[in-house]
Amino acid sequence: RKSKITASRKLLLKSLMLAKAKEEWEQEIVDKQSEKERYLSERITPLHTSGLSLSQLQDLCRELHEKVEIVDEERYDIEAMSGMEGRKKMFDAAKSPTGQ
């Protein structure tokens, strides 16, 4: 059975498809970066420290430190929950006599 498309035409189409995929991938990267910048600009307010006294700066640092601790705890909890299944499988494998 003969192919209806020549090898050179097939190669040309493949290279065109790869070029189009590369363009879309690059555009996706740009879109993700702009979305990230937009999201961060909405969520994060600029930090104004000029004109603050020493005690106000210390209070601000304490407040920011508390927020960082909360985020770190949440991140740790998420990582622990997502890794729970993998660790359970490792422990089960270690308990089995064959190690599998």
TrEMBL record:
InterPro entries: Troponin (IPR001978), Troponin_I (IPR050875), Troponin_sf (IPR038077). SUPFAM superfamilies: Troponin coil-coiled subunits. Residues 22-74 form a coiled coil. One of its GO terms (molecular function) is actin binding. Keywords: Actin-binding, Coiled coil, Muscle protein. It holds the Pfam family Troponin. Belongs to the troponin I family. Troponin I is the inhibitory subunit of troponin, the thin filament regulatory complex which confers calcium-sensitivity to striated muscle actomyosin ATPase activity. This is Troponin I1, slow skeletal type. The lineage of its organism: Eukaryota, Metazoa, Chordata, Craniata, Vertebrata. The gene is TNNI1.
